[in-house]
Amino acid sequence: MAAQPKKRTIVESGDGGLGLGLATFIANGEDLGPIIRHSFDSGKPEALMQNLRSIVKKKEVEIEELCRLHYEDFILAVDELRGVLVDADELKGMLSGENSHLQEASTDQLLKLDELLELYSVKKNVGEAITTLKICVKVFSLCMTCNYYIAEAKFHPALKTLDLIQKGYLRNIPLKLLKKAVARQIPLIKLHIEKKVCSEFNDWLVHIRRMAKQIGQASISQASLARQKDEEMRARQREAEGHSHAGPDEHLYTLDLENTEEESALHFDLTPVYRAHHMHTCLGIGEKFRDYYYKNRLMQLNLDMQISTSQPFLESHQPFLAQVAGFFIVEECVLRTADGLLSESQVETTWETAIGKITSVLEEQFSRMRTASHFLLIKDYVTLLGAAVNKYGYRITQLIEVLEKSRDKYHQLLLLECRKQIDDILTNDSYEQMVIKKEYEYNMNVTAFHLEHDDAIPDFPYVTPFSSSVPDVCRIVRSFIEDSVSYLSYGGLMNIYDVVKAFLDRLLIEVLNDSLLNMIYARSLGMSQMMQLAGNISVLEQACGMFLLHSAQLCGIPKRVAERSHSGLTARAVLKASQNAVYNALINLTNFKVDEFMVLLEEVNWIAEEAPDNSNDYVNEVMIYLETLVSTAQEILPLEALYKVVSGAMSHISDSIMTTLLNDGVKRFTVNAVLGIDIDLKMLEAFADEKFDSTGLSDLGKETTFRDCLVEIRQLVNLLLSSQPENFMNPVIRQRNYGSLDYKKLSIICDKYKDSADSLFGSLSNRNTHQSARKKSMDVLKRRLKDFS
Asked: What InterPro entries does the database record attribute to this sequence (predicted)?
């Protein structure tokens, strides 16, 4: 009972709120730190201590109460506890002994365990270090390998090594510093490789531009060699064809085994291009290099296409065209072997641009050309350029077209040069027959142009029927044919024969024939020279066939085909006409010379009282001249020309006598004068018959002989000496004996005709005599002729 009031006093005496809170915290086993910290912070630790003491007292009271209630149980428990304590002490002693024993026994093991753990740690560290070192050593090895490849300029394996480092080892490098250094160097090394291969490629650009001319020249030389072989084969074919006409030849067909293999390919190094392209592709910038290559090559081409102004195009065209050829040969090889570095469209576009520039340059240069040989030289090299690049697949249509456009210009220059040469030859020719003393001269001047039908070698010295201008002109014509064929060959025309023949016709007509006509009409040649010119024209006219066959052979047309062709040269007919012109000129010269002698007719005594015993003086002079004329013409002129000239001279003599009788210079003439003319005519007729037979003209079957050219004056003399002149009016007799006489001319001449001279004594003595029958007949004829007129 006393205990309860005491308890209540303790509770009441304390701070009710704080004590209740402390009791609750203690009962719940919570932390008293915040309350204690708060009490000290608020400066009231005494109240806290007081409340704690109150709680302790309260707990002590509760313990006392509890002990009182459970005293017996507590005593028993204490006794048991004491027994447990004893057992615990024993157990503790045992454990302590065992522990001491165990510690003594495990001390060595623990030391060994510590050593083992330490070794395990070392092993782990060493393994990690070895792994790290292996990675680093591998990376270092790859870096050294990469450096070696770069030093040896083996950029492809260097890039492969860099790629291996970057993809296989860079992420796994344990050392950050090394990893950072390697990562920083990789792009620098790639940039170095790019610069290095670009430097090599730039050196190659310089080198290949320098080499392009040599490459082009070598390719053009191969094309020239192939063309030469082709021409040699054609020459052998022509030779074989010539042999085939003569008969079989066991050595005719042979196979040339030399140089049958193709020429070795042109060698030039594209390794820097391949390497640069491959390196850029591996670096992932292949498109950049392709663009770089294309632009740089275009710049080089533009430089190559610039024409040198410091030297003539004749001197610069070969290196210029060879440079272009070399450029595109390299481009074709790059297109074919560089694995997509160039596209066909790029090469095609570049070629079209270049060929357009070349054709423009050629057209301009051709328009300035004034020499055919220069023209041909450039044309030949252009066609060789076309042949060289065409085998690499480049189209050369524009080149062929520009050559075709210039064809007429070239032949015009060639014609002008031939005109000058032919004019010089004809002007400087002596027009005397050539005297050939050696066989090689004969072969060079006669056989070479087939100017003689007989192939047998004559005895020397040999006098040709032509002068030196004929073989000289033939050489010019043959050279013209060869130059024309050379220009037209290897062009766009498949059949050049017709074109060559047309230009050959122009040469023979516009140049040769015109020059011959100029010589004919210049009147600067004497009779023998004009004869020789006529003989020359005849030989040249016959040579037209040889010119045509030579053209056909050079054009690849078999001789037998050309011989069967019915389309000859128009020039042959033109030269034939020129022969007539020179024959007419010869006739005019002859007649002019005859007129000089016929002037002596004025000295004839037309009223002679007695019949002459000899011929008149004029006819003697004429006979001497005609003899010289025929002998000279017989050596030079063909028979046809000889016939025309002598016939013209005879006709002119007849006309001259008739004209003399018709002119007012002869007032009258007597029968004695007619008898003198008759003697003259007989001499002329004898000469005409003899020359007509001796020259071989009688074998030609001519309807009109030399004698026939004197028929008019002969019929007049026969009529005047006839006993029945009036028979002229009889149509039958007139047609048979006097068909060449004209009524009007005969009337005039008969009016002048007197049967005898009217001398004083003769007149007186005959005054009362009868007129003779002939005089009566003549008077009848005169009257009837007047009536007819």
From this structure: EXOC6/Sec15, EXOC6/Sec15_C, EXOC6/Sec15_C_dom1, EXOC6_Sec15_N, EXOC6PINT-1/Sec15/Tip20_C_dom2
Q: How far is CA 271 from CA 267, 307, 333, 576, in A?
A: 12, 31, 12, 70
Question: Could you tell me the residue range of the domain that residue 363 belongs to?
Answer: 218-236+267-394
- CA end-to-end span of the chain: 220
b/e 25-55 (16+ beta carbons within 10 angstroms → b): eeeeeeeeeebeeebeeeeeeeebebbbebb
3-state secondary structure of 754: strand
Q: Does 22 fall in a domain? A: no
List the one residue out of 260, 195, 267, 193 whose CA is nearest residue 233. Answer: 260
Question: Are 427 and 559 members of one domain?
Answer: yes
In which residue are the tokens 């890039």 written? 159
Question: In this structure, which long-range contacts are made by residues 1-4, counting pairs with CB atoms below 8 Å and at least 24 apart in sequence?
Answer: 3/61, 3/65
pLDDT, tens only, 397-438: 888 888 888 888 888 999 999 999 999 999 998 888 888 888
Gap between the Cα atoms of 448 and 317, Å rounded: 36
**64 falls within a domain:** no
Q: Give yes or no for a contact between 11 and 19, defined as CB atoms under 8 angstroms apart.
A: yes
By the 8 A CB rule, do 546 and 487 touch?
no
Per-position DSSP letters for 649-673, written without gaps between them: HHHHHHHHHHHHHHSTT---EEHHH
Task: Note whether 469 and 612 are same-domain residues.
Answer: no
Single out the residue in 584, 614, 629 at which a domain terminates.
Answer: 584
Q: Are 482 and 456 in contact (CB under 8 A)?
A: no
Question: Which pTM value belongs to this model?
Answer: 0.69
- Tokens 């002869």 -> residue: 666
What is the pLDDT at residue 492? 63
pLDDT digit string, tens, across residues 44-88: 778 878 888 888 888 888 888 887 787 777 788 888 888 888 888
pLDDT tens for 319-369 read 888 999 899 989 888 888 888 888 888 889 999 999 999 888 888 888 888
Mark whether 498 and 543 lie in a shared domain.
yes
Q: At what angle do helices 397-405 and 344-368 cross, to 10 degrees?
A: 10
| 140, containing H or E segment | helix 71-151
Both tokens assigned to 687: 């000469």
Asked which of 394, 426, 444 is the last residue of a domain, the reply is: 394
645, 586 contact by CB (below 8 A)? yes
Residues whose CB falls within 8 Å of the CB of residue 185, separated by 6 or more in sequence, listed in order? 143
